[in-house]
Specification:
Strands 1-2 form a two-stranded antiparallel sheet. The longest helix is centred in the N-terminal third of the chain and has 38 residues. By secondary structure, it is mainly alpha-helical. A hairpin with a 7-residue loop joins strand 1 and strand 2.
């Protein structure tokens, strides 16, 4: 069946559409949101081009973020070492320029800005690889439902909404780091100085891996197409697209915030620790066995946290 008003392109038959409408209605009656999309045939060359452009852009963004983090880590490593000098009483500012100030000096606007930038770039570097399937799916659905629209520009707005949520998380993390440093819980390398605090964070993060909220958020991240079906599909307007990106980002933060909190235990600028956590998040979100991995990681974290608590209290 073809639609004369759509240039003769094939469209969904009336019977098929009515069946889909009945299924959608029953899902709504059961309390599940759903959306019917009429996906139109699209030139595979165009889809391939969109995919290549998005992958290259996100890969470049990830590479730039990790380059910045490696630069900061190398600078802080050199500052902590300082030719064997005792740096007790000083703290490093993650600026990449070797800035240090007395540890007892209150944070100033410049230090807050540098720490906030560090957390923001870290979130981009860690989360972009696992967000790539969702961003690619949004662009594809946009191309197949609105061929005459601009799915790439809409995808930029979607990604902006997603990263805006993580930027807000970075701001919160900056305040938490400030509080930890004020109470001397973090050392000059931005790692926990208390096994008790570290153990509690490990146990809390491990327990969260087994919660229903974690499962709900992880499911939203693991199923990009289903996420779009539940939340209205492709949006033409920039505001609607931005809001959809914000919603997906919120689910992503709900899925990963506890793991991110562990950066304060292993070291905010510990590159190996950052890579390990980013890998766990990637495996959870993009593999078919992500949920078992999340639960296994939860067990490991609880056991590790119990060990830290034991050593901290002995």
């Amino acid at each position: 069946m073809t639609d004369e008003h759509d240039g003769g392109r094939p469209s969904v038959s009336k019977d098929s559409y009515q069946m889909a409408a009945r299924i959608a209605q029953r899902l709504r009656e059961a309390g599940l949101k759903s959306q019917i999309l009429n996906l139109l045939p699209t030139d595979t060359t165009v889809l391939r081009r969109d995919r290549i452009v998005i992958i290259l852009a996100l890969t470049l963004l990830t590479a730039l973020a990790w380059t910045y983090l490696l630069w900061l880590s190398a600078d802080m490593g050199m500052g902590v070492g300082m030719g064997g000098m005792d740096m007790t009483g000083f703290r490093m500012i993650p600026s990449g320029t070797g800035l240090m100030i007395p540890a007892q000096m209150p944070w100033r606007a410049m230090e807050f800005a540098f720490v906030f930038a560090m957390w923001t770039v870290m979130m981009v570097g860690m989360m972009t690889p696992s967000a790539m399937p969702m961003i690619l799916m949004y662009a594809r659905v946009g191309r197949e439902t609105e061929p005459q629209a601009s799915p790439l520009s809409a995808t930029v707005w979607f990604a902006a909404g997603y990263f805006l949520v993580w930027t807000a998380f970075a701001l919160l993390a900056t305040f938490v780091q400030w509080a930890f440093e004020r109470t001397a819980v973090l050392d000059s390398a931005m790692a926990s100085t208390s096994n008790v605090v570290g153990g509690l964070l490990f146990v809390a993060a491990g327990a969260y891996q087994w919660t229903q909220l974690k499962d709900v958020c992880l499911t939203q991240c693991q199923t990009p197409f289903a996420f779009l079906m539940r939340h209205g599909g492709f949006r033409r307007d920039a505001l609607g697209t931005l809001i959809l990106g914000l919603r997906h980002g919120a689910y992503c933060v709900g899925c990963c915030w506890a793991l991110m909190a562990l950066l304060l235990v292993g070291g905010v600028m510990n590159v190996l620790w950052i890579v390990l956590l980013a890998l766990v998040i990637l495996l959870e979100k993009v593999t078919s066995f992500g949920s078992p991995i999340a639960r296994l990681v939860g067990i490991v974290l609880v056991v590790g946290g119990a060990w830290l608590l034991t050593t901290g209290m002995s």
